């Protein structure tokens, strides 16, 4: 079975084509600047060579159509005809309370996605564009939606509800949904395979630390809490997002600066976090380099960033009554050794001991970075959300 996985953003289309007989990646790449001048597709050729192709992509259907042409290209393609694709799996962000697991895409699912778009204005409309593109270009092929929020649907009500008037939850779906769920699900399963542990009897804290970042408490195989909330703005300090702040700051600044809610939304989502503190960059590589040169704002940003990760780890250890495994994943979690070391420093009281020298050598590969006598296993596991989407798609289509 050949499965195409699509991840559509507001101006991007990422794709991977899998041969599920051996779970190999046949092709992968992504279109960027969709609907913007200077659009292009980056892809990896079958021989491993990377290639960038400039191509005008006015909207998502045209982008998917161009990707199809690359997959079937006589020189760089990997299939002869798009009819070889048996199913398409989509990364979808928010399905609300109704869709708490991966599902075959039908009219009802699309309607719920449309209904929830106010809560995920960047992600839900983009995901639907990918669905509509496949309907247009491959109308007979089954499609599956794999929701970012699904893994967090197991949270108890006392964890996902906000202390607001209850009618806001009933009428407007105001609750903690959590995001990055497919990544948290993958690394929690994979780390148990690495360690030879039974996930149903293990307490895991999963740290998805990238430009967007979230931490989850996974107890005996299910999520009981996660740092992101109604939207991906809550929780940790991120590249450009502020994370948890006193909500009165929002109304105070709206009045003080005469800002509209829309303008405040831009500040909180795109001008805050690491970028806001450093006045330099949202890229942690740039920030680390500046900090090494003594830039005080870069040093401060790293301290704030790592401190908040440590606070959530401590909170979730308390929520689960202990922790057996801490796992780091995503761009920063897999590669930024200083963040892993600092976030775990001071956690010796719960049994965490980092092998400092080994940690410094680990970049983007599976590894145990705790010492042999550490009561808590601390690991790095590169995430693979696309494989989870492909697996869910295959299972549902088979049924």
Q: What does it look like?
A:
This protein is α/β, with parallel strands linked by helices and 399 residues long. The protein has two domains: 2-147, 2-Layer Sandwich (Nucleotidyltransferase, domain 5), CATH 3.30.420; 196-380, Nucleotidyltransferase, domain 5. Helix content is 39%, strand content 19%. It has helices at 60-71, 107-115, 124-137, 157-160, 166-172, 181-195, 248-257, 261-270, 273-278, 284-292, 296-320, 330-335, 337-344, 356-361, 385-398; strands at 2-8, 12-19, 24-32, 40-44, 50-54, 87-92, 103-104, 143-147, 203-209, 213-219, 222-226, 325-329, 367-368, 377-380. The strands form two sheets. Strands 5-4-3-2-1-6-8-7 form an eight-stranded mixed beta sheet, with helices on both faces. Strands 11-10-9-12-14-13 form a six-stranded mixed beta sheet, with helices on both faces. A hairpin with a 2-residue loop joins strand 10 (213-219) and strand 11. The longest helix is centred in the C-terminal third of the chain and has 25 residues, at 296-320. 43% of the residues are buried. The mean pLDDT is 92.
Summarize the entry for a quick read.
The chain is of the alpha/beta class and 399 residues long. Helix content is 39%, strand content 19%.
Lay out the secondary structure.
Layout: E1 2-8, E2 12-19, E3 24-32, E4 40-44, E5 50-54, H1 60-71, E6 87-92, E7 103-104, H2 107-115, H3 124-137, E8 143-147, H4 157-160, H5 166-172, H6 181-195, E9 203-209, E10 213-219, E11 222-226, H7 248-257, H8 261-270, H9 273-278, H10 284-292, H11 296-320, E12 325-329, H12 330-335, H13 337-344, H14 356-361, E13 367-368, E14 377-380, H15 385-398
Parallel strand pairs: 1-6, 6-8, 9-12, 12-14
Antiparallel strand pairs: 1-2, 2-3, 3-4, 4-5, 7-8, 9-10, 10-11, 13-14
Helix pairs in contact: 1-3, 10-11, 11-13
